[in-house]
Amino acid sequence: MKSLYAEHSASATPQVIAATADSLPEQAGALARARAFAEPLLATQTLDTGENVLLHADAVAAILRTIGGSEAMQAASYLVYACDHLNKPHEVIAKAFGDNFADLALETTKLVRLQRMARVAQNSASHSGNAAPMAQTAAAQTESVRKMLLAFSKDLRVVMLRLASRLQTLRHFAATKLPVPPGLASEALQVFAPLANRLGIWEVKWEIEDLSFRFLEPETYKQVAKLLDEKRAEREASIEKLRQQLADELAAQGIQATVQGRPKHIYSIVKKMRGKSLGFDQVYDIRALRIVVPAVPDCYAALSWVHSQFAPVTDEFDDYIARPKPNGYQSLHTVVRDAGAQPIEVQIRTQAMHDHAEHGVAAHWAYKEAGAKGYGGSVTAAGEYDAKIAVLRQLLAWERDLSGAHAGGDGAGMFEDRIYVLTPDAAIVELPQGATAVDFAYSVHTNLGHRCRGAKVDGAMVPLNTPLKNGQTVEVTAVKEGGPSRDWLNPELGYLVSHRARAKVRAWFNALAMGETMAKGREAVEKLLQREGKTAIKLDDLASQLGFNNADALFEVVGKDEFSLRNIEMLLRPPEPAATQDDYMPLKKPRAAGGKGGVLVVGIDSLMTQLARCCKPAPPDLISGFVTRGKGVSVHRSDCSNLRNMVNRSGDRLIEVEWGTPQGKDGNVYPVDVAVEAHDRQGLLRDISEVFAKEKMNVIGVQTQSVKGTAWMTFTVEVAESGKLARVLKIVGELSGVRSARRR
C-alpha cells in the first residue's frame, strides 16, 4: 500500500518532527525496551478496528520514524497501548521509563477513548431519522473532536501519536478490504488531514486525504484514478525531470532559485474540480512546480524566462505580489504547457513570501483549504483557534529550546482557556477553563441548568462548584421543577465561570422579579374592576383600549406604579343611574325654534334635549334618546354602551330622535373626543394642536399620559359634523411618531 502513496512534496519538513521528538528524554535502548515491555501485554489483543494491537503499535512507530520521529517518540507508541492493560499505568510506566513517558501515555490514551466515544455518539445520531439535524450534529461533533484533539496536545507529542495512529488505521482498512466504521474516515478527512497540513507534515496529510476519500467516495476515487493517464511513478519522474531542467536553466541565466516539484494526489484533484466547478481537463495543476528566489525582481525575471521557454495558458496568470490576497499571501501564479502540451502550474515567490505562506499567522491552510467562500479567490479570516495553530507550527521548530526540564511546558498554556468534557451519552461539551457542573448543565440546556441540584463526575458525587477537567464524564442530577440559587451568582463561591451561564441565571431572577411585579399589577387592576362592577370585561380588551398590546403589559406598568389606576376608572365610567345636570352637555348654541337645528324628538317638538357626555354624539352619528327624570331627553350615540345598559333596565323610556337641520354659518357645533397614541417626543402636542387649528376645529380640552416613551392623548374638539373628523384624523395619523388617531 505504501508504494501507491510514495509521492510527496519536496517541501515536506520531517526535521521539525525530529525536533519535537527531542522533548522526550533519550534513554539507551528505549525503543527496544518499550517494545519488550509492551509485547506480552499487546501480542494477543485487538483494537475495535480488528487490527492486532502490537502490529498497530509497530506500524505507528514506523510512521513516526519516516517523518523524523526519534527513538524516544517511537517508544512512546508502544507505551500508549500498554496503558489499557495495566492496573496502575502511570505508576508502572513512570517506574520503568520516567514520569514524562507516563504522562504522555496516559494523556494520549485518554484522548483515544474520548474520540472513540465521540464516534459512537455520532453514529447513534445518524439513526435519528431527520437528515438535517443529523448532518448538523455530525458537523458539530467533528468540530468538537478537532478542538478537543488540540486541547489535549500539551506539548504536541499527543498530536504526532494520534496522526500516525489514524494513518495506520486507514492503511489497515485499505490492506484488509474491511468496511470502514462510519465516522472514522470522515473524521480523518475533516480533522486529522487538516491538522497534518497545518503542522506541515505533508506526507501524512496527503495519504490520510487519499485513503479517507477512497473510503468515503469509492466510485469517484476510481473514476479520477482512471482519468490520470500517467501512472504515479511516471508523473513523479516527469515532474522531477522538469524540476531539474528548470533549476539548471535558471541557474544558467544567473537566477538563483530553488525549484520544488508539487505533484497532485487524487483528493486534491477532486477538491479543485469541485471548488472551481471544473472538468478534469480544466485542472491545470495536476502537475505543479514552485520556484523560490531571493528577491522580488528575481520573481519577475524567473516569470519572464518561464514564459519564454513554455507556452503560457491565456487567463491563467495571477500576480499576488502586486495585489496580495486578503490574508497577506504573495506569489506569482502561471500555467504553461510543456513540449507535450501538458499543463504545468508554476508558482514563483521569494523565500520571505514562502515562509509567510507556509508558517505565518496569515494561515497557509486558508489558501490550501477552501474556507467558507470556497475557491473564489477570497479567503476566510483565521479565527482565534487557527491563530493558536499558527503559533504551534512555529513552536515545533523551536521545541528543543522550549521544552526545558518538562516537555511542552510552554505549549501547555496554549489551550488552558478551554476544556472538553462528555455527557453520559458521550456528546462532547466545550467549556471555559475552571468550569463547574453548573456551567456544564447550562451549556447542555438552560432548563437543565435551572433545575441542577447535584452532579457526578466520572461516577462520583462532587460539590457543584468543583472545577471540571479535560475528558471527564459529567452527569447532572436535576429536580422536576425549580430555579437557580442566588449563591450561583456570587463569584467568591465559584459556582459559575461561563459568562453565558451567569447571564441565564440573572435572566431567571429578572423574570422572577417581573412576575412578582405583574402579579401586583394584576391584583390592583382586578380589585378596581371588582369595585366598578366590571369583572366580566376581558383584560386584554381593557389593555387594548388603554393603548397596551396585551394585559401583561398593562399589569407591568401598574405594578411598577408607572400607570395610574385613575386612567382605568376614567375608561370605565359607570352608567348614569339618574340624570343630573352635570351628566349632560348643553348645546354650544341654542336650538332654533321649530326644530331647525340641534336634536328633534320625533313626534314631540317641545321636549328639552341634552347630549350625553359619555359618548358625545355629533351629526351625522346614529342617535337614540332616553327619557330622564326631570331633565328631558338624553341623546346618545346608538352604539353607546351606557345607553344599552339603561335600556336593559328601562326599555320603555327609549325614544326616537334625529338631528335637526343646521342653518348657515351659525349652525350648532358638538364636542367630540379624539384618542391619539404616539411615540412621545418634544413638540408632539404642539404639532397635533396645529393640525386642529388649521382645520378650524376648536380644542376645548386635552388630557395626556406618557408611559415608557409612549404618549396617550385625549383631545376634546368642537365639530359641526363628525364626517369631517375622519379626514382630520388621517392628517394627525401621518404626523411623526403618531401610531393611531381615532374618535373615542
Automatic annotation (TrEMBL):
InterPro entries named in the record: ACT-like_dom_sf, ACT_dom, Beta-grasp_dom_sf, NT_sf, RelA/Spo_fam, RelA_SpoT, TGS, TGS-like
Gene Ontology MF terms in the entry: GTP diphosphokinase activity
Domain of life: Bacteria
Keyword Cytoplasm: no
Pfam families: ACT_4, HD_4, RelA_SpoT, TGS
Family, as annotated: Belongs to the relA/spoT family.
Functional summary from the UniProt entry: In eubacteria ppGpp (guanosine 3'-diphosphate 5'-diphosphate) is a mediator of the stringent response that coordinates a variety of cellular activities in response to changes in nutritional abundance.
Protein name as annotated: GTP pyrophosphokinase
Organism of this sequence: Rhodoferax saidenbachensis
